[in-house]
Amino acid sequence: MKLWLAFGCLGIVACGSSGQTTTTMAHPAGHGGQSSGGSGGNGGVGGSLLGGILGGGPSASIGGTSAGGAGNPDSGEPSLDGGSILNMNPTPARVVDYASSARHSRLIFEVDNVVGMAQRPNVATRLVQRFGQILDKPGGIEVVDDQILPTRGADFAWQDSDLADVAMQYNGDPDAETLSIHVVYVDGHYATDTGSSKTLGISWGNLQVVIFKQTIEDGCGGLGLIGPLREQGCEESEFGVLTHEVGHVLGLVDNGLMMVDDHKDPMHPAHDVSTACIMYWAYEGPGFFDVIKTKILNQSQPLTFCQHCLDDINAVK
């Protein structure tokens, strides 16, 4: 398993064409409660070079991890979490604010995509439904389609500096009541990919998510499903990767959000020990696609957050 534990980037903004802003969906959460912490500042990113670019707080994280170094880089399996240069730490105040309505009653997912790599509409709808059920956001949760960025091409290898470029497209938290998470869908592949080792998504700073949609489409296309089942497999794959990465942004598992009970895999930081949890480390590899195929053929429920993850979120509402 190729598991990278740090991310760093430096770059100058690559301007894309601005798209019309639309709201996909909004569902208020049905939970109350108080926050035990404050916001980490607009953007909440920070951490060495990336923090200087985006102007956030003092630290950040990649792919749900909070320490540097690469783990098991030689196994040749796809990964949900990419990374490379700098060590960054989580931003605990911001992750508390994601869960609680005490300081911010509303959450938006600001979604950019390169040409031809748009988020599936069903994925946007399910994203709002899922996180509307577990976060306390009475003002609603929305997906906002923001910018369409220039294509880099099917063979483009995304370097850290390129990811910093697209991160610069982030508009920031729009107002005092609203937090935002920046999601960017890209073509091409991550620069460290090989023929047998692929990165499906990257998250850092408890704020930024990059989805390598072309890589996901290639993977789900190899499931051997045909007709409507093929599209279902690709939707579940895209939604699963996005859910996993947003889970890291929210501070799961011990990635800024404190655990009520220990459920972290000691061998795989920021990942759950349970195979029933979307945050399980092995779903970064080929087994992720295999599980999706099995669940589709058996007509069973998709992977989601385990009760331990939900308990951690509920504890700070």
Radius of gyration: 18 Å
Count the DSSP helices: 8
Helix % is 25-40%
Low-confidence stretches: 1-88
Strand order of the largest sheet: 2-5-4-7-10-9
Q: Distance between the terminal alpha carbons, to the nearest Å?
A: 34 Å
Strand content: 15-25%
Main sheet characteristics: 6 strands, mixed
N-to-C order of helices and strands: EEHEHEHEEHEEEEHHHH
Mean pLDDT: 76
Number of strands: 10
Overall 3D form: globular
Structural class: alpha/beta
Describe the protein's architecture and organization:
With 317 residues, this protein is of the alpha/beta class. It has 8 helices and 10 strands. It has helices at 48-54, 92-99, 121-134, 160-167, 213-220, 228-249, 286-297, 307-314; strands at 3-4, 17-26, 70-71, 106-114, 140-149, 157-158, 178-186, 189-190, 201-204, 208-212. A hairpin with a 3-residue loop joins strand 9 and strand 10. It is globular and about 45 Å long. It starts with a strand and ends with a helix.
